[in-house]
């Protein structure tokens, strides 16, 4: 309104307001194009918060980058990865979003053994380790369900892989998964069961001494 008042005053005192109007039109067009990204970020952020897709403290993967959500605003999402790096994503540029701690979390366990290993025996040991953790007050309180053993996930001519899952409270999957792997290692050692040896890489073969 004040801009229009000033133009009227200029026109009344005899100044040519044509160039001013032309310049204002160009400036308004430039501001409009520049504000597109800001408006897109704000609208995307509004729906991000409205739909409660992620919250501060969640473990999320944004555009392929994983980390803990440290801040959410109408304009940006801030993640901090395990190395301490802070990643800032404008909401309008988020193409993919995965939340690893929405309502509950899970640690997926893959156990790779030699082909001749008794898989039924190994699955029973895994079940016993999972049940022992469920009875442990320290870990049982954050485990939502007993261990789920899906069975043989894959096998080759030399190895066989057993897959299982530990369902936990949000953000507790890493802690529970690490402890389960630690206990399973010693349980397999006591049962004289060895994991499959990792394949020797072609690079290691080429650099080995003749």
Supply the number of helical segments. 6
| CATH architectural arrangement of the largest domain | Roll
What order do the SSEs take from the amino end to the carboxyl end, as H and E? HHEEEEEEHHEEHH
Q: Stretches where pLDDT falls below 50 for ≥5 residues?
A: 201-210
Q: Quaternary arrangement of the chains shown? A: single chain
- From the N-terminal CA to the C-terminal CA, the straight-line distance is 86 Å
CATH top level of the largest domain is Mainly Beta
Radius of gyration: 29 Å
| CATH topology term of the largest domain | SH3 type barrels
What characteristic shape results from the CA principal axes?
Answer: rod-shaped
The overall strand count is 8
In which order are the strands of the major sheet placed? 4-3-2-1-5
Largest sheet: 5 strands, antiparallel
Question: Structural class of the secondary elements?
Answer: alpha+beta
* Average pLDDT number: 85
Topology:
Blueprint: H1 2-12, H2 18-50, E1 59-62, E2 65-72, E3 76-80, E4 86-90, E5 97-99, E6 105-114, H3 119-135, H4 137-140, E7 148-155, E8 159-168, H5 173-190, H6 202-207
Antiparallel strand pairs: 1-2, 1-5, 2-3, 3-4, 6-8, 7-8
Helix pairs in contact: 3-5
List the main descriptive attributes of the protein structure presented here.
210 residues; alpha+beta; SH3 type barrels; Alpha-Beta Plaits; 8 strands; 42% helix
